[in-house]
Task: structure prediction
Amino acid sequence: MLTTYLIAFSALLGVFAIEKFDFILRTALTYRLGPRSFLVLFGAMMPTIMDAVAPIAALVATYLVVLQKREGREFLILSAAGSGGRPRIEIAAAMACVALFSSLGVAGFLKPLASHVFRSEYEAALAGVVGRGAETGQFFDARDTVLHVWGDPSPVGRKMRVFSFDGDRLDQVFASNCADMRVEGGRLLVDACEARVFAFKKPESESGEPLPMTPHCRICTDPDGGIDVVRVKGAGSRREFDVNTLFPPEVSSRQDELTLPALLARRDTVFLSRSNGRKGTIIVQQAIVSALGVGLAFLAAAGTTARTRFLALPAAIALLLGCLVLAGSGAFAPADGSAVAAALATAALAALSLGGLVLSAVVTRPMLTAPRLVRS
Result:
């Protein structure tokens, strides 16, 4: 059973990893990240996929194992030997444990660690993109500002131009031929020597009111093409940019880096953080729902015939995903920060899931005794 689960898990992981591979590859090519950064970022994205794949893999593995035993008449032979429903209960219990603990392990421990690794590597990679980017140059769009850097990556050889816009109109150009750049605390800090600023005056009427921009000239002060430029030169200057405006924002938050025990930390009967406690409760409840997927696998295997062989498994997966989405929405997780209420809600969900799991293994006995895909 475990081998079947690992095969299903690996296959599903490979399928869903293609999307993340494309995203990380495009990011690496766009910002010229090295092979190490690419591999670390891609590897750190895997637990996010594992979190979604683990429940489905448990369902698929259970379905295949139960269906194989039914078609191989193993349940029929064991039933004739007087074992009753014990083999089915054992399979259900074993696979439910696999689903439960794999989900808890991935979502509660592995995923937070991977989120921390991803954020650290992402920030380090972005810090090197601007400060040690390609000598041929690269443009960065920061909302109403366009940043262009090029040249030797040494502090005295890095060149920078900052184009600031007011709507569609070029408002200011900041230039330096020796810029030292670094990322600290989510901010790009630029220490520029020999800074020069070119500010373009907006077109105004004689009364001082702003005039519409000249269509054919975005820096002209009048329709005749006149340009009014204020030039400022300084020995040194510092500029700051929000990294998230220059690059795609991180896909995770600091809360995603907290392990399950940290999320569920409490003082007496109240969680230390309402949002953290609710998130931890949702993780546990989704793991419980994952175990319920094993019961859905039994129902799907029991309902698989020559006519329904292409429908039973997809229907069970769809139902499981629906239950996971419902649990992930926090429908069963109290939002008042009470650890007691969260424990009671989780216990009730666990009781319902356990009852459904046992019931599915029992009621499917008549349909799992003899083969139903082919006539003998």
Q: What stands out?
A: The CA atoms of residues 287 and 297 lie 16 Å apart. The mean pLDDT is 83. The radius of gyration is 30 Å.
